[in-house]
Amino acid sequence: MPSAHLQLPLSRRGFLMASAGAGAALGLAPHPAQAAAGPRPFGRHGSPAARLTPTTLYVDPRGRGDFTTVQAAVNATSGSGWTLVLAPGTYRETVSVDLTRTGMTWLGAGDGPRDVVIVHDNAAGTPKPDGSGTYGTTGSATTTVRADGFTARRITFANDWLRADHPEITGTQAVAIKVMGDRSAFHHCRFLGHQDTLYADTNALTVFARQYFSHCYAEGDVDFVFGRATAVFEHCHFRTLTRTDLASAPYGFVFAPSTAGVNPRGYLVSRGRVTSEAPDAYYKLARPWVPSSDRTAGPMLTVRETWLGPGIDAVAPYADMSDAYPWQNQRFAEYRNSGPGAEITVAENRPQLTAEQAESATRAAYLGDWEPWKEDC
Q1: How far apart, in Å, do the first and last CA atoms of the chain sit?
Q2: Residue of 115, 121, 196, 221 marked catalytic
Q3: What is the pLDDT of residues 232-251, one digit of tens each?
Q4: What is the pLDDT of residue 20?
Q5: Global pTM?
């Protein structure tokens, strides 16, 4: 997404160690998670000595698994159907799952997603070590998943790059995870960053990749959930961060879909909540992204039965990313939302679905014959 060219005066240590809020959700404790110190770092998921299946691999940064890094475990797989069990700990690395490794599952072996953290700190403007240029938005991702059929449970995906640490860099997009595969599911996961945190995308303009996020948490400031996937966010919590570098609103935008114009389904947010650390009305709910690579895009977002906190500007919850593509010409709609950020004060600024239209704005309609919610646990 376009760079904000802004500086956030918060040290990396402050970002990682602060209490509830901006960096707090990273959950990067100064000591290993308690579960990691016990004799069973993989919990009920077996161990290298008691492997649940021949295609299960165990990862532990303390050396009690098959591998100490997630990427090494991914590299050891081939074909479809592998499971990686990740012991509690912090994995500071970048990880990529290519197109050939389909049907892969990652299981966090802690009590929750805070116990297993995959984190790195590249931004779009970060120079590559080989001198070949900068990473760009896609290349900044801590985790990249191109393969179909990917599932993750109880894992935190984070990018802790901070603007204040790099005033020389203007490409401030810093992706925690980019997901492009069809049938990609995330259950009880967290996505942490600032700008462009969660990139829910596809492998090609002609591919309508379906993605499902259940009971997840995402935080950021600028366009922190974005891309062109057909994505359902169910029972998810979105939190907007404060910005002491800015004196006035808006601080940023929660969603920035770039749905292909021929795709009838974009982003669907259902039964979630949006909270904020920022002052009231300092965030927009969404703005449409029409990228230079696809000027025929028709960004689509439906938010239904979701609680919108006071951080959302209820009077004007949507904004333009470009004057050439006003949000009013895109496919934005709401249905039966609640909370102070959902109050309808200017009707033309808050397009609403009718009851009949809402019948087709469901997870089943968006995801078709794929029913990942039946696998949630």
Answers
A1: 33
A2: 196
A3: 999 999 999 999 888 999 99
A4: 34
A5: 0.92
Two tokens, residue 108: 């966090």
**pLDDT tens digit sequence for 114-138:** 999 999 999 999 999 999 999 999 9
> Is residue 317 reached through a cis peptide bond, with omega within 30 degrees of 0 on the bond before it?
no
| The pair of three-digit structure tokens given for residue 116, joined into one six-digit string | 């297993």
DSSP 320: -
Q: Check if 196 is active-site.
A: yes
Structure tokens given for 152: 């993750």
CA dist 200 and 221 (Å) reads 16
What span, in angstroms and rounded, lies between the C-alpha atoms of 302 and 333?
A: 5
Cβ neighbour number for residue 307 with a 10 Å cutoff? 16
* Active-site residue identified among 121, 221, 223, 313: 223
188-222 residue pLDDT tens = 999 999 999 999 999 999 999 999 999 999 999 99
Please indicate whether residue 223 is annotated as part of the active site.
yes
d(CA 104, CA 225): 23
pLDDT computed for residue 245 by the predictor: 84
The angle at the Cα of 119, spanning 117 to 230, to the nearest 5 degrees, equals 85
